[in-house]
Amino acid sequence: TNHRKSCNLVMDKAKDQKPWFAIGQEYTLLDTDKHPYGWPKKGFPGPQGPYFCGVGADKVYGRDVVEAHYRACMYAGVNTSGTNAEVMPAQWKFQVGPCEGIEMGDDLWMARFLLHRVAEDFGLLVTMDPKPMQGEWKGAGAHTNFSTRKMREDNGIIEIERAIDKLSRHHIRHIKAYDPHEGKDNERRLTGGNETSSIHDFSAGVANRACSIRIPRECAEDRKGYLEDRRPSSNCDPYQVTEVLVKTCCLDE
Hints:
About 35% of the residues lie in helices and about 20% in strands. The chain is built from nine helices and eight strands. Strands 1, 2, 3, 4, 5, 6, 7 and 8 form an eight-stranded mixed beta sheet that branches.
């Protein structure tokens, strides 16, 4: 189902509040046999630790795809703002944003299309599954940064904390909006381990990767900025994610 129409209506209602978003899209590169790219064919790589933001052919797999993708995004006019290797080998992240309103969903969907198309040229597949490998391997999310004009102004921390209070009262509604199967996909990822919060509990904190909502340390120190919702899954619909954030935090719906 295309959720763009309802998202756009909500963004129009809240346009005076200038809602900004940035989404960190995590994904995993696969070989054509659906096995993570670069992994031993009949085994596993070494434990997680050296791969995050790694450098070296023994730590990162598929950088050519990543760099071709961000160039394609820039050429196409997608507002991309960074990439990095993730915790699990063959897992990567790219950031889209900051985008205002409906542009967040538009740009992320285009960036996803370009990623699949670029990977095709390298003979690889891309999965947005939030838990592509079972066990103690990190899942994949779509961490969503969100702010309004008041949050970005001096003493905006008050507005940030007010938004977090609202989010705490609508946890189940947000979980249902944060993956295509109303939480069933995210249930495999949001276990409380591997830098996630539990899908069953709402939490918030400063510079804490194990919370539902994280306030970046620099925002806490500056007392303004944005919040990061770490719950959306990598296969989320960004129109649904941004729509429910604005409904809860801006429109009190």
